[in-house]
Q: What sequence folds into this?
């Protein structure tokens, strides 16, 4: 079993910042070897990759968030973070944490999601 629990979502004004956290637990995950990622899904749209970080620390980002968002991981805490700066109304979505293997990531588990709302 793998559990991914997101936190840190909320309501913020455009230009503001938020930091999302995702804590992994369970016997079904070896956090240090997993690729971890953040996806988002806005109303009426498909879920899309926001950012991912491999076990070796390599990162990739959606073009729409490059230069504004930063993904990082703390293997000792089994936690992945998404620092979001210069937020825009179009960043409004439910953000999901994911874990998997490889790059591109083969997703094995999803979190329950956390709402991020950016007001103009």
A:
């Amino acid at each position: 079993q793998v559990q991914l629990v997101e936190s840190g979502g909320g309501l913020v004004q455009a230009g503001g910042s938020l930091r999302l956290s995702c804590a992994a637990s369970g016997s079904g995950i070896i956090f240090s070897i997993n690729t971890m990622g953040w996806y988002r899904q806005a109303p009426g749209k498909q879920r899309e990759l926001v950012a991912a970080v491999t076990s070796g620390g390599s990162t990739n980002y959606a073009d729409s968030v490059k230069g504004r968002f930063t993904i990082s991981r703390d293997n000792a805490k089994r936690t992945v973070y998404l620092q979001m700066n210069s937020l825009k109304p179009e960043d409004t979505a439910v953000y999901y944490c994911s874990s998997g293997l490889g790059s591109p990531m083969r997703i094995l588990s999803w979190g329950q999601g956390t709402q991020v709302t950016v007001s103009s």
About this structure: DSSP finds no helices and eleven strands in the chain. The first strand starts at residue 3 and ends at 7.
